[in-house]
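Possible regression after last week's pipeline update?

I re-ran a chain I had predicted before the update to compare outputs. Posting the input and the new output here so someone can diff against the archived version. Not blocking, just want to make sure nothing changed silently.
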Amino acid sequence: MSVSAAVRRITPPDISAAKGGQPLVCLTAYTTPVARLADAACDVILVGDSLGMVVYGLPSTLGVTTGMMIAHGQAVMRGATRALVVVDLPFGSYEESPAQAFATAARVLAETGAGAVKLEGGAHMADTIRFLTARGIPVMGHVGLTPQAVNALGGYKVQGRGADAARIAADAAAVAAAGAFAVVLEKLPDSLARRITAEIAVPTIGIGASADCDGQILVIDDMLGLFTDFRPRFVRRYAELGTTAAEAIAAYAADVRDRRFPGPEHVFADEVR
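New output (post-update):
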């Protein structure tokens, strides 16, 4: 009897060790079928709190709950066997204190089986990241445009222009020094993202940052053309599945109304032949 070799899952130390090497491929996923599709090509699959907007139709990520993240984390883990699965900690579930963050992160990892969590914030979150990593919870950081702070930032604006560059660079350095195994850089000037990538010792994952980051991430519904409410400038669409799906649904509706579906090949005879 032959036994198939177990697939080795990518770990946070593997991601850290990729600094300066071949760019890391990262995408979001929220469901088992999509996770299966992404798993073959991706180093990291992020169960992002962006699911609030692309799956649930919320106006922002602020209404996402820990329960929602766990349910989708479980779904993604059922579909991904190779990539490192990282789950976002949602707004309000970790900012109050390191102890609150640990309780949420421990629950997320225990109930999903994911390999790491991601949290937003710079220098002010360094103590929390240090607290988590000292207790065995791998953390991916996220600086620059942090969508959970959209109200404080006044919208989804580019961060780190001009004199503000020093603040973002300091945030990235603090998060890396606190023990994050990688740091997402969102919506920064190209030159600043390149500078941060050169200055910190852990991989940078760009989204609207620079091609010189150590990796890239996109919301999978954006790059597949499924989420069409708006299109960020930093998104390149590799398919237009929203248009394709709309055309397929319209064709199905026409066939039903004209009684072309179901056809003879889709129905059953009285007796087995």
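Follow-up from reviewer: compared with the archived run. The domain at 12-241 is CATH 3.20.20.60 (TIM Barrel). Marking as no regression found.
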